UniProtKB/TrEMBL annotation:
Species name: Torulaspora globosa
UniProt-recorded name of the protein: Anaphase-promoting complex subunit 4 WD40 domain-containing protein
Region described as Disordered: spans on this chain: 254-287
SUPFAM superfamilies reported in the protein's UniProt record: WD40 repeat-like
GO cellular component, one term: nuclear pore outer ring
Main location: membrane
Glycoprotein among keywords: no
Length: 349
């Protein structure tokens, strides 16, 4: 591991690599975004540009798929999402290399997470904040990236947002192009899977059960070579959990015990704790999902802050209060085991 000084003057909230892993972006409470590039000769990260992007702490950022250009989305406590595009004609470290494309300001509270959808869904992004509302935006005209439209709005929580000022909300898209559009959304200690139904609206299709505290991080694994999906969560209760998600037939005549209500964006407020007894899967806009908890680990011996899958969905990394990164891989018996532990502490020379 080669640590480098980000140059931020306050807490760094998020770090994101671009698709090729040659650039990394960071955001901070100092209201700045910084982009670093990897120098091939020295194998060191060098500052490419830094700019003041928001009027409050920036807590999340994400890169768009490279087929849409070099675009970054940032989310802030100032209730806005901003989209930035790189201008290669501008000098590096000038503060002008990244220009603002658009500002999305529909949120009524601080924003916590923003993620671009997989490329096969188009130039689309989702966000969640402490107003308890999931919002999805689309750039309907690829030739005009300054114009974004709010295409979906789902009220996830019905309680006052003021009570969630210190809570983590997070989301992750299903990356499979052979599966209906889905994303997993974590609010407080609830993890809900939303799927776009035949009515073109987002509905709750499943729930990840068993969390004993705030869910700090969630990651949906790429499903290369698998007939099922995997989702990992990191929780304040100190556990890394891995769930198996299996799609069921739309003609199934079973009761979906994992579905918490027939929640649609047109139905107003959604209560994640609503009972699902008597829900007929055949009458739902989208079929329910069968969800199994297949792995649970407390190796960090403290709060788990981040989980992330590799590009093939075969290795899961987790980071926690123990200051270590743990790498998890499935064995031949389909059991996840810790294969490596990486310490952030550097040996003093």
């Amino acid at each position: 591991m080669k640590p480098f000084d980000s140059g931020h003057e306050d807490l760094v909230h998020d770090v994101a690599y671009d698709f090729f892993g040659r650039h990394v972006a960071t955001c901070s409470s100092d209201q700045h975004v910084k982009v670093f590039k990897l120098d091939k000769e020295s194998d060191a990260w060098q500052l490419s540009d830094s700019w003041r992007a928001h009027d409050s702490s920036i807590v999340s950022l994400d890169w768009a798929s490279p087929e849409y250009g070099r675009i970054i989305a940032t989310a802030s406590y100032d209730r806005t999402i901003k989209l930035w595009e790189e201008d290669p004609d501008q000098e590096e470290c000038s503060g002008r290399r990244w220009t603002k494309l658009s500002t999305l300001n529909d949120s009524k509270g601080s924003l916590y997470d923003v993620k671009f959808a997989p490329a096969h869904l188009g130039l689309r992004l989702a966000c969640i904040g402490n107003d308890g509302t999931l919002r999805v935006y689309d750039a309907l005209e690829p030739s005009d990236l300054r114009s974004w439209t709010l295409t979906s709005e789902v009220q996830v929580l019905s309680v006052s947002p003021a009570s969630h000022l210190q809570s983590d909300f997070c989301l992750s898209w299903c990356p499979s192009r052979f599966s209906p559009e889905k994303l997993v959304l974590c609010v407080l200690d609830q993890a809900l899977i939303y799927q776009r139904g035949k009515d073109n609206k987002l509905h709750v299709a499943g729930k990840l059960e068993g969390h004993g505290g705030l869910i700090r991080s969630v990651s949906w694994a790429p499903s290369i070579g698998r007939w099922y999906q995997l989702i990992a969560t990191g929780c304040k209760d100190g556990k890394v959990r891995i769930f198996k998600v299996i799609e069921t037939s739309s003609s199934a005549n079973t009761t979906a015990s994992s579905v918490s209500g027939d929640a649609a964006e047109s139905g107003g407020q959604t209560n994640p704790d609503a009972p699902s007894d008597g829900t007929d899967a055949g009458n739902m806009p989208c079929p329910p999902l069968r969800i199994e908890l297949i792995s649970e680990h407390d190796d960090h011996k403290g709060e788990v802050w981040s989980v992330s899958w590799n590009l093939t969905g075969t290795v899961l990394s987790s980071a926690g209060d123990d200051g270590k990164i743990r790498l998890w891989r499935s064995t031949y018996s389909n059991e996840f085991r810790c294969m490596s532990v990486i310490s952030a502490q550097q040996r003093q020379s």
